[in-house]
C-alpha cells in the first residue's frame, strides 16, 4: 500500500510539473505575440508619420499617444509586458529621450484609445476619407505589414494583437457618400485578453464616448434601446489577411439591438445569433460615437424606444439616466480592474488621470 501511495504521489507531481511547464510555454508564446505586435506597430506607425511629411509636433503628439497606449495595454496584459520590451535596444534610449511621457505615465494614466484607433484617427484626418474604399485600401496595405504570418501554419497570422480587423464607416445622409451632413470612421477594440479589453471598453464608456453610445452599450441589448434617425447609415469592413481588400460585412446582433434605426449595409444576417464578444467591442460603437460628437443636429434627434409606459427618453434624459443608474457602478468596476493590475489611481479616486502628450 505504501509503495502504491508513493507511486501515486510521484505521478501527481509529474502531472503538476507537466501542467506548469505547458502553462509556462503558452504564457511565453502569448507574451511573444504581444511584444512582436507592439514592436511592429510602433515601427510601422513611425514610418507612416514620417512618410506623410508630418511636422515634428504632429509626430510627437501621435507617437506619444500610441506608445502610451501600447505600454499601458502591455502592462495590464497577462503575462505582463514592460515598455522597454517593445522597443528595439538600439533605439530605446532615443525613444526615452524623445518621448519621456509614455515611459513615465503608463502606470498612472489611462489611454483614451487603442493604438489602432489612434492610427485610424491620423489616417482619416490626413487622407481622402470622403470615399471609404480609398481609405480601406490604404488601411489594408498597413494591416498587411502589421500582421506577422507563419508559413508553417498556412500563412496564418500569429502576431496581430494591436491590429483592428473591422473598420466601420458611418454617415448622416447617403451611405454612398453623397450629400452627407457628416461622416466618421471607427475601429473595433484592438487588444487581446479579457482584462485589457474590458478595461478599454470601460474607459471608452466612461471617458471617451458620447453618453448616448455609453447608454446603448450598457443596456446590453435590453429595452429601451437607442433609436437613430433613419438618415444614419453604417457600413463595416472586415480585414482578411489572405485577401486583397477589406470585405463589407453585416453588423452583429449586438449592434442591431443597441442601435435601432441605423441603416446597416449589408443588413444583419442573423439577428438572433449573439456573438461571444462583449458589448462595446465593435467598430460601430466608435464610428457612431464620432458621428454624434461631430453633428449636434443629429445628436439632438436621438431618442430611445418607448418603454412599457409608452414614453421615450430624449438625449438629455438619456444622459441623466446613464449618470444616475450606470456611471458609479462602471467606475467601481473599472477601479477594481485597474487595481487588480497595479495601476495607480489618484488619491481621491474620483477621476481617472488620462494621458496627455507633452
Automatic annotation (TrEMBL):
This is Uncharacterized protein. The lineage of its organism: Eukaryota, Metazoa, Chordata, Craniata, Vertebrata.
Amino acid at each position: 500500500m505504501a509503495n502504491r501511495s508513493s507511486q501515486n504521489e510521484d505521478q501527481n507531481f509529474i502531472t503538476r510539473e507537466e501542467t506548469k511547464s505547458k502553462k509556462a510555454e503558452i504564457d511565453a508564446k502569448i507574451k511573444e505575440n504581444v511584444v512582436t505586435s507592439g514592436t511592429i506597430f510602433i515601427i510601422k506607425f513611425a514610418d507612416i508619420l514620417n512618410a506623410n511629411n508630418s511636422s515634428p509636433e504632429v509626430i510627437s503628439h501621435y507617437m506619444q499617444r500610441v506608445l502610451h497606449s501600447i505600454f499601458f495595454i502591455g502592462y495590464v496584459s497577462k503575462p505582463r509586458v514592460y515598455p522597454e520590451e517593445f522597443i528595439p535596444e538600439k533605439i530605446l534610449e532615443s525613444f526615452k529621450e524623445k518621448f519621456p511621457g509614455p515611459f513615465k505615465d503608463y502606470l498612472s494614466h489611462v489611454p483614451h484609445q487603442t493604438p489602432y484607433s489612434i492610427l485610424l484617427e491620423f489616417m482619416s484626418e490626413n487622407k481622402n476619407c470622403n470615399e471609404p474604399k480609398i481609405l480601406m485600401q490604404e488601411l489594408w496595405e498597413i494591416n498587411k505589414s502589421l500582421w506577422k504570418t507563419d508559413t508553417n501554419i498556412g500563412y496564418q497570422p500569429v502576431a496581430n494583437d494591436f491590429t483592428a480587423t473591422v473598420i466601420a464607416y458611418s454617415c448622416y445622409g447617403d451611405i454612398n457618400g453623397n450629400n452627407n451632413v457628416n461622416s466618421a470612421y471607427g475601429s473595433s477594440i484592438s487588444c487581446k485578453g479579457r482584462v485589457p479589453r474590458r478595461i478599454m471598453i470601460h474607459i471608452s464608456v466612461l471617458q471617451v464616448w458620447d453618453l448616448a453610445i455609453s447608454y446603448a452599450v450598457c443596456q446590453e441589448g435590453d429595452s429601451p434601446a437607442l433609436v437613430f434617425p433613419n438618415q444614419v447609415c453604417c457600413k463595416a469592413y472586415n480585414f482578411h489577411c489572405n485577401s486583397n481588400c477589406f470585405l463589407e460585412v453585416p453588423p452583429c446582433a449586438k449592434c442591431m439591438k443597441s442601435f435601432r434605426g441605423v441603416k446597416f449595409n449589408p443588413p444583419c444576417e442573423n439577428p438572433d445569433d449573439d456573438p461571444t464578444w462583449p458589448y462595446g467591442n465593435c467598430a460601430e460603437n466608435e464610428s457612431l460615437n464620432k458621428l454624434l460628437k461631430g453633428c449636434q443636429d443629429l445628436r439632438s434627434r436621438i431618442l430611445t424606444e418607448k418603454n412599457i409606459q409608452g414614453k421615450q427618453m430624449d438625449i438629455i434624459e438619456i444622459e441623466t439616466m446613464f449618470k444616475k443608474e450606470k456611471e458609479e457602478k462602471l467606475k467601481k468596476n473599472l477601479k477594481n480592474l485597474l487595481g487588480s493590475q497595479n495601476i495607480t489611481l489618484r488619491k481621491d479616486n474620483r477621476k481617472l488621470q488620462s494621458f496627455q502628450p507633452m
